[in-house]
Each structure stands twice: as structure tokens, then as C-alpha cells.
Write a structure and sequence with these properties.
- With 327 residues, the protein is an alpha/beta fold.
- Helices cover 46% and strands 19% of the residues.
- Helix 2 links the parallel strand 1 (36-40) and strand 2.
- Helix 2 packs across helix 9 and helix 4 runs parallel beside helix 11 (301-322).
- The longest helix has 27 residues, at 3-29.
Length: 327
């Protein structure tokens, strides 16, 4: 073959290769060019949904594309996250993951429908929130020390409500029992609204609650907050002590973060991370998070991945110790 023929063949091959690469490169450089779906793995109206819609609205403005929230609830959030894991990694399906879905559920289900570490691309932590340790107003205690003293005097007599066996609020209660060496009966509920109703009525004495569900009730005096389960006070509840102020190592902080299917291009992940970081500096968005009982978060995809690893070890050990398994 002549040198001219070889040169023509090389040029033809290079042109073909360039043509094959063009759609991928173009797709990434023009992203987003159509609406994006945001999977929220819980029912509309709950804390995860409120945060998901705030995130969707924020990104819709900054990206210049419609973001459609898609609620896919069930099985403690695993149905929605399994749907996200199976989606095309093209940046047009994103999801809201929580400490429950990414750390706790994989330990309590015998065959979880996804690998929380391998099936997702972490993007950014959006918000964090401790839980509220609250009591019915008829209970004669006004701080954590008094509650522990009463529980020790009456072992097995007091009960605490959570949003379900193996859920974050259940584990927060078990941490308290273990740290304080008290016997308090666990009563699982299907949601925060039912816990709050029974707490107000005095059918249960104690509740571990999502902050987004109870801040107005605390401020109106319908339930009494003794502590938040973190090592510092919550901005939206400055008068409620952190539980570590009672010298109890009961840190249980839920978090909400943005994820994409594994394999999503790094350019898209980095763009989303930057847009959320910018949004979290907006005073209006920060104030809305505080109103929902949340603390603005942020950070890099790597920091989120490292946090998942740390929490997996912490909560996995407790779940295994308690022998909690989903029915």
C-alpha cells in the first residue's frame, strides 16, 4: 500500500472515530438540553419531599431547565432509590437520597435492591438535621436528666414513638437507651403525624421526631422538646439544648443529599455540585431550610462518599447488635 493510501486510510479512520465521539461530547457540553427528573423516594408532603421540591426549584432556575419531581415511595425509600440506580447515567435522572436510604436500609433488608456505594454517584449533601427528643406536656420532666431519672425509677413503663422499626428515629431512641442504660419501650408508627398526635394526647410519653414535622408544635407549646440529637443546637430551635449537653453520646443526625446513577459523567456531577453550593449561599434558601428545621450543608462529592462510609460503620454496628431486620 502506498504512503498516500495509508494516509487516506488513517484520515478516514480518525474521521469515523471523531464522528462516533461527537454525540457523547456534544451531549455533555450542551447538558441540560431537556427536562430533568428528580426522584424523591418518599410520599408527597413529607420532609424529604419538601427538601426535594426546594432543591428542584433551585436547580431549575440555575440550570434553565424544568425539573420534574417524581415521588416513588415504599419500602423505606428503597423502591425509589432502586429506580434511580437503574436509570441511564446521562444527567437527566437525579435523586434525593437520605441517611435512611443510603446507610440504614441496606443493613435491615436481607436483599437490598441496590448497592448504596456502587450504584450511585454522590453529588452533594444538601441539608442535615438532628431529631427532636420530645415528651408529652403531662410528663413531669423538663430536661434530659429528669427524663433519664424517671425512666430509671420506672423501667419498662415509659414508651417512645419512632417512624418505624429500623428507621433513623428508632435507632436514635436505641442509642439513648444504650447510653443512659434505661428500659424504654419502642412503639413504631407509620409516620411523624401519628406520633405527634399520640404524644399530644398522652398515649405515649416520648417521641423521636423529624424536626420538619414539629418545630411549630414546639413553639406553640403543644409538645415539650428536651433536646436535639446532635452535638450543637439547631439554628431554628436555639432554646432547645443539644443532647450532648446532658453528657450523653447520642448523636443522630439525618441528612439529605443529591445523587445520580453511577457512571454519570464527572462534568455533570461537578456542575450540579457547583450549582447547589451556590444555592446554599443564598440567604432565602438558607432561611427556608432553617424554617424546615434543617441546617444547610454542602461539600464535595468525595466528602459525601466519605460520610456515607463513616455512617455505614456506625449504624451498621448498632443494627447488627440489635438484630433489626425488615419484615
Amino acid at each position: 500500500m502506498s504512503s498516500l493510501s495509508r494516509r487516506s486510510l488513517l484520515l478516514t479512520s480518525a474521521s469515523a472515530l471523531f464522528a462516533l465521539c461527537m454525540p457523547v461530547t456534544q451531549a455533555q457540553s450542551t447538558w441540560p438540553s431537556k427536562p430533568i427528573r428528580l426522584v424523591v423516594p418518599f410520599v408527597p408532603g413529607g420532609g424529604a419531599d419538601l427538601l426535594g421540591r426546594l432543591l428542584a426549584n433551585t436547580l431549575s432556575h440555575s440550570l434553565g431547565q424544568t425539573i420534574v419531581v417524581e415521588n416513588r415511595a415504599g419500602a423505606a425509600g428503597t423502591i425509589g432509590m432502586a429506580h434511580l440506580a437503574a436509570a441511564a447515567p446521562d444527567g437527566y435522572t437525579l435523586g434525593v437520597g437520605l441517611s435512611t436510604t443510603q446507610v440504614i436500609s441496606p443493613h435491615i433488608y436481607a436483599k437490598p435492591p441496590y448497592d448504596a456505594r456502587k450504584d450511585f454517584a454522590p453529588i452533594v449533601e444538601f441539608a442535615t438535621s438532628p431529631f427532636v427528643l420530645a415528651v408529652t406536656t403531662s410528663l413531669p420532666v423538663h430536661n434530659v436528666a429528669e427524663l433519664i431519672e424517671l425512666a430509671r425509677r420506672q423501667p419498662g413503663k415509659l414508651s417512645f414513638g419512632s417512624t418505624g422499626e429500623g428507621g433513623s428515629t428508632h435507632l436514635a431512641g436505641e442509642l439513648l437507651k444504650k447510653a443512659a442504660k434505661v428500659d424504654i419501650v419502642h412503639v413504631p408508627y407509620k409516620g411523624s403525624a401519628q406520633i405527634v398526635g399520640d404524644l399530644i394526647a398522652g398515649h405515649i410519653e416520648i417521641g423521636f421526631l423529624d424536626t420538619s414535622a414539629v418545630v411549630p408544635l414546639i413553639k406553640s407549646g403543644k409538645i415539650r422538646a428536651l433536646a436535639v440529637t446532635s452535638n450543637k443546637r439547631l439554628t431554628g430551635l436555639p432554646d432547645v439544648p443539644a443532647i450532648t449537653e446532658a453528657r450523653l453520646p447520642v448523636e443522630a443526625v439525618g441528612w439529605t443529599a443529591l445523587f445520580a446513577p453511577a457512571g454519570t459523567p464527572k462534568t455533570i456531577v461537578d456542575r450540579l455540585n457547583a450549582e447547589v453550593a451556590k444555592a446554599l449561599q443564598d440567604p432565602a434558601i438558607r432561611q427556608r431550610l432553617i424554617e424546615l428545621g434543617q441546617e444547610p450543608a454542602g461539600g464535595t462529592p468525595q466528602q459525601l462518599a466519605e460520610k456515607i462510609d463513616r455512617e455505614d460503620r456506625k449504624w451498621g454496628a448498632l443494627i447488627n447488635e440489635l438484630g433489626i431486620k425488615a419484615n
